[in-house]
Amino acid sequence: MNKIWNQRLSQYQQKLLKYLRYVFNDHFVIALFFVFGAVCYGYFNFIDHYVYPLTVVDRVVAIITLMVILQIGKFATLLQKPDIVFLLPNDYRINDYLIKARHHSMTMTALIQIGCGLITVPFLVRVLHFSWIEWAVLLISQVLFKWMQLLFEETGLFDQKWNSSQMQFLKQGLPLIGIVGGILLSPWLSLGIAVIGWGSMLQLRKKASYHVFKWKDAIAAEDKRVMRIYKFFSLFTDVPEVHQKIKRRRYLDWLLPRIQQDSRQTYKYLYWRGFWRNSEYSGLFMRLTIIGVLLMLFINLKWVSLLIGLLFIYLTSFQLIPLANQFYDIVFTHLYPIKSSQQLASFRKILGTLTAVQALIFTGTLLIATHSLIAAVGLVIGAVGIELLLAHFSLNKRFNKGA
């Protein structure tokens, strides 16, 4: 079982590295550089100028932030669907396999909790007046609470008559009590609760090993975990493991152009329908627009906000270009008496409309955040330049090439 785990882990890491090369491409790295720098500048600028006395709202923000960070990361078993048949004879050795999985999951989640937890340190020190020992104890408690949740997930893979309400209390309620106690009273209280909870889950896990392992539930949970990662990668490149779901959204029919007796409107109608029904494109447009708006509101420096707006317009438009080839593999569309130039013109109009809508939203946000008319005009001019660049250069290279 140890050999199987090592092979699975190696294959899993190689696949992640393969997709990460597409995620951290030149365009995304440049955008990430500016966004990360702008967020850090805005965050530390906010902390340095925070002069309000300690309030209940500050404590609530810290509690919610730590609880959200605690939800990052799941127990990774790397089990696959054929295992329910081929590994069933080794069912009695599944605990050896899960020990390897537990160590891997605990290591990765500990790094995530510490990395994300360090982001909260300036807020804890500046606003909540924590000493370096107190925030270090709080981070250790955070890691122990996460390990407790991983043990809870691992224990749930065995067939036992658990009381669901009690188990949910152990998974979410106890960490919440510990974090609240650590923020409101003392981080040492949080550490004590974390140690007790972690020790209790270790004992429950040992007892669970004498029960039957639920192969179907374990494989389903792992598929769900991996699919979340693949869906993130699918925002940047084609991921064969992800099958996009097409949804019929009747409430968006009013956004579709009216069907006219004109062949020039055929692809315009198809592209709009494909955009709204395919969550890969419509969801991408919505998410990047919302993230861009939030960043521009958070960072009220006009030139930094201007750069963020242009970067998000570029990222959105660039990642919408594959929509131009969505119907290329459908043989019936090649029977339409429509020239490829008309199809390309239809897509350019749609890309231009979406760019204009996003630019309008970002311009309004920029005016609200900075009150700078010059920066708003610069955003509009930059958006026009980006749209012309992509629609007449990048689109020509990738149109009907399977890109």
What does this structure look like?
The protein has 403 residues and is an all-alpha fold. It has two domains: 2-233, no CATH class; 250-398, no CATH class. 72% of the residues lie in helices and 0% in strands. The protein has 15 helices and no strands. The chain has helices spanning 2-23, 26-48, 56-70, 83-86, 94-119, 121-126, 132-155, 164-184, 187-208, 215-233, 266-277, 279-298, 302-320, 340-370, 373-398. Helix 11 (266-277) packs across helix 12 (279-298). The longest helix is centred in the C-terminal third of the chain and has 31 residues, at 340-370. The two termini are 41 Å apart.
Number of helices: 15
Q: What is the straight-line distance between the termini?
A: 41 Å
Low-confidence stretches: none
Strand content: under 5%
Kindly give the count of domains. Answer: 2
Mean pLDDT across residues = 81
Number of strands: 0
